[in-house]
Amino acid sequence: MFVGCWNRKGELPEIPQAKQEGGIVHKGTCRCYQRNNTQLCFFGELYNKEELGYGLIDDAETLFSVYTQKGIQGFAGLDGAFTCILRTPDSVLVVRDRHGLSDQVYYTNTYFASSLALLKLTNGFDATPNYQALSSFLSIGYIATPSSAFSGVQKLGAGEVLMYKDGRIESDYLFPTDTITPVPLKEKTLDEYADEYAALHAGAIRKRIGKSTNVGILLSGGYDSGCNLAALRSLYNGDIRSYSIGFRGDNWTELPLARCMSETFRTIHTEYEIDGSEIEALPGLVEQLGDPFVEGGLMVNYAVMRLIGNDKPDVILGGDGSDQYFGTSGREVALHYLISRYGMKPVMNLLYTILSRPAFDKDTSFYRLRFHLDKVLHILDGDLFGFPAFQQKKLLKDPSSFRHSPLLHPDMRSFEHLYTQHAYKSDLEKIINQVILFKASKIADMFDNHLVFPYMDLDLYRFLMRLPVCYKCKGDSPFRIAKGETTAKYLLKYHYKPMLPDAITAKKKQGGFAPMPIFFQNDKQRARIADYILSSSVVSDFLNRDYVEKFIAEYDKESHEAGNWFWYKQNRAIQYFNLLALSVWWERFVREGKTYSKITE
Question: Where does the chain bind L-glutamine (predicted)?
Answer without folding.
Answer: 59
